[in-house]
Design goal:
heterodimer; A: alpha/beta; Rossmann fold; six-stranded mixed sheet; 8 helices; 37% helix; B: mainly alpha; MetI-like fold; binds adenosine-5'-triphosphate; binds magnesium ion
Chain lengths: 268, 293
């Protein structure tokens, strides 16, 4: 068995996976984290959720993951599985310190009752995709921060899930490691064709990585603008230094500024 | 090579020289060696000095052996009475170990029950606390009245003393699993049993082992105290019984010899739990990791 690469279709011709419709989330009856949040995820998308701190990005991901219920509105999954087929990467690597790298990546399978020997080839392949094929027997404490994050990514994609959620996965890493991991994430995406929602508050990261950027405004959190980046994968230095990149980055920054300006006005 | 030409230094430059580092490193290594020798040698010297001082005091003041026996006499008694003392030690050890085993089973079992059901915790936790805070000497006589079998009664006493640290620590450990990992388990639809086995129990292991270290010592204390309470009336044969018996006969050297054995037992139990702790955690837990330098 191997991870079958999914075909990525062009933007605008992708079957829908899930839809968030007029979603509201209120905490303790008074903190409105999300208000009338709408978003659509299509197969093969790499979506960036971009917004300032506290605008409800993590809340949106937790709702999609089924970790909490919306106050009102709904999430519509295409097909029967719903949120049963997910991969998740948190801001921290979130590995089990008592288990080796291989055992950590085995976890999603193990919870489905699969023995290590029956999925060993998938685990090895996932580790190879993140460049850690030699570290299967290491313990998390023996790895650097970037390597731990790679293990976390390998664990998220080892089951070849329908959707991978990433909540600021590289925010705690240094700039060099971060760029390296951004590049690797794109090769990974090209190799597997997976669908990803990527939370970030870096404009540049979102432009470089995604084909759809959803800009969110705070208080209450909602999507205020969608920007498409119609640039084929894999992307590299040429794209990072191109005029298109600069233009989109400017457009995204402006959208973000105006989203935050709204909030300031509302607040005053 | 040009590098060789630039090794001359001006007075205003600070030189960090590799060879000086070597010297420093050597000093460091020497200190470490000294430390590792000292770790064993210092306590040994202190013990030897204490024994010598004890012997000296007894000799100089001509203290009679029924008040304070000399260390030599204690050793002699230990050797001569080995035939009675050693089986007694085994009896006490057996009670303490069985109590510890039951404390582990009971403590971990209750902790798991508590984390699985809030209601069970609300209902039973007060009893656990009451058992813990009631001094065992005050409850033990009742236990000996109600329980006919003497060994079972001893076991119950030792268990009551030993089980609480295991219960409290394991409960805390089971609840302290990383919250992101808990979310991960939810996302992957782990059931209760999988959550317990793959996340909560491993997270609780260091806490449990901490509790075990305390409980190991307490189980010995519990066994000895229970034996004291049971007194010499029964068919006792543990170390505490030997101490009581020797006391009645004013056989002070034998009291000391039995006391020495109890202390050695305690140290042995402590060392065993420490080694177990190291063995189970050495691969991953901060507390058991050796750091470079
Ligand atoms: N469990 C909770 N209880 C109460 N309020 C919450 C809870 N979780 C989030 N909030 C509130 O909801 C809002 C959105 O939080 P959220 O964590 O989704 O923001 P975020 O966009 O992920 O921010 P950051 O970039 O800092 O991670 C915040 O105002 C936060 O205080
Ligand atoms: Mg967040």
């Amino acid at each position: 068995m191997s991870l079958p690469p999914r075909q990525i279709r062009p933007l605008g011709d992708r079957p829908r996976i899930l839809q968030m419709q007029d979603l509201d989330k209120t905490f303790n009856g008074n903190v409105t984290a999300l208000h009338r949040m709408n978003l659509t995820v299509n197969e093969g998308d790499l979506i960036s959720l971009l917004g300032p701190s506290g605008c409800g990005k993590s809340t949106a991901l937790r709702l999609i993951a089924g970790l909490m219920r919306p106050t009102s509105g709904r999430i519509l999954w295409e097909g029967g599985q719903g949120a049963d087929d997910l991969g998740v990467v948190f801001q921290e690597p979130t590995l089990m310190p008592w288990a080796t790298v291989t055992q950590n990546v085995w976890l999603p399978f193990r919870l489905r009752g699969k023995s290590l020997s029956s999925v060993r080839s998938q685990i090895e392949q996932a580790l190879a995709l993140v460049g850690l094929e030699k570290f299967g027997d290491s313990y998390p404490r023996e790895l650097s921060g970037g390597m731990k994050m790679r293990v976390s990514i390998a664990r998220a994609l080892v089951t070849n899930p329908r959707l991978i959620l990433m909540d600021e996965p590289f925010a705690a890493l240094d700039e060099i490691t971060r760029q390296k991991l951004n590049n690797d994430l794109l090769s990974l995406k090209a190799a597997t064709g997976c669908t990803i929602i990527f939370v970030t508050h870096s404009v540049f990261e979102s432009v470089f990585l995604s084909d759809r950027i959803l800009v969110m405004a705070p208080r209450p959190g909602r999507v205020v603008k969608e920007i498409t980046v119609d640039e084929p994968y894999p992307r590299g230095l040429a794209f990072r230094t191109s005029a298109t990149y600069g233009d989109i980055a400017r457009e995204t920054s402006e959208a973000l500024m105006s989203a935050m300006g709204d909030a300031v006005e509302e607040h005053a | 090579m040009t590098i060789a030409d630039t090794t001359d230094t001006r007075p205003d430059q600070t030189v960090i020289d590799g060879s000086k580092f070597d010297a420093e490193e050597a000093r460091h290594a020497r200190n470490k060696r000294l430390e590792s020798v000292g770790k064993w040698a210092l306590p040994a010297i202190v013990v030897l000095l204490t024994i010598w001082g004890w012997d000296h005091v007894v000799k100089v003041n001509n203290i009679p052996h029924y008040i304070l026996p000399s260390p030599g006499l204690v050793a002699e008694t230990l050797y001569e009475d080995w035939g009675t003392l050693f089986p007694s030690m085994l009896v006490t050890l057996k009670i303490a170990m069985m109590a510890l085993l039951v404390a582990v089973l009971g403590g971990v079992g209750l902790a798991i029950l508590f984390t699985q059901s809030k209601f069970a915790e609300m209902a039973f936790f007060p009893y656990a606390v009451i058992l813990q805070v009631t001094p065992i000497v005050s409850v033990a006589p009742l236990i000996f009245i109600y329980v006919d079998n003497r060994t079972v009664a001893l076991l119950i006493c030792a268990w009551v003393v030993a089980f609480f640290p295991i219960l409290a620590n394991t409960t805390l450990g089971l609840k302290s699993a990383d919250h992101n990992l808990r979310d991960l388990m939810t996302i992957y639809r782990a059931n209760r049993w999988q959550r317990l086995r793959y996340l909560q129990l491993p997270s609780a292991l260091p806490y449990f082992l901490g509790g075990l270290r305390i409980a190991g010592g307490l189980s010995l204390i519990g066994a000895v105290v229970a034996e004291y309470v049971a007194g010499t009336g029964g068919i006792g044969s543990g170390l505490a019984f030997r101490i009581l018996e020797a006391g009645y006969r004013l056989n002070i050297p034998r009291m000391f010899a039995a006391l020495l054995l109890i202390a050695l037992l305690g140290v042995a139990i402590f060392m065993a739990t420490t080694i177990l702790n190291w063995f189970l955690l050495r691969k991953w837990h901060e507390s058991a990791l050796k750091r470079e330098s």
